[in-house]
Write the structure tokens for this entry.
Amino acid sequence: MDDKLREAINKYNEAYTMLNENGLSLLTERKRVVDLLGHIENLVNSLANRPKEYDKSLEEVKINKHSFKDVYEHAASDLNDIKGAAVGMGSGVLGGAAVASLAPSAAMWIATTFGTASTGTAISALSGAAATNAALAWLGGGTLAAGGGGTAAGAAFLAFAGPIGWGIAGATILTSVALFARKAFKRNKEKEEEILTVLKNTEKLSECSAKIKVMLSEIDYLRKSVSSEYEKCLKYYNKNFSGIDGDGRFALGTLVNNTKSLSAKLRTSIGDK
């Protein structure tokens, strides 16, 4: 039975590694998109007598870009608050301990991929179970009433923090051979339950990983396409739009439209897939 449990843990860790790699790749890709959007904004703004529609499109681009940046920056700030609130909770509050162990890089891609929502109260002002619940709600994307997964989803997302062994909501996910040795006395029935728990979490990780991979593929393809269009339009920098020929205007219009579509990808969350 120990061998089966160990095998299940190995599969979980493999699934986590793939999920984390895809998540980090998506975050990196989105950062590249933000940089590209800035360059395109500069190009379009340099055009004299440009169509008003261009400015309207750029406003949408700015909103999408700032939305992504806000989530990223707030996630960094909130993570510090969560970790601060988790200090002193004691090993008995497993949720707080698990949140405190969350790596910054993992938190950033989780926040920008799954989305986060305010708990309504500064996490740093809370303590004990209240802080833990607030932290889980933050990771889960808010409350059920707000359309997010709430603390239940937050508990599930803690499984994405890495190959950790914290017990969340009654589910135990073991982490290392050392833990297997200490738990070797468990009855077979309990071990079977642990194996099922690990396998279920592994399945969740794999499903999310597949969705993230699709998101990554879509945004990567669109970014490369828009980047190519941008390079072709660079020759119009600081030009008067009135003096640009039909082909040039068409190219610029296509660039602006596709840039708006690309920026929207910054706000796509895994729940949209």
Observations:
- Residues 188-233 form the longest helix (46 residues).
- DSSP finds nine helices and two strands in the chain.
- The radius of gyration is 23 Å.
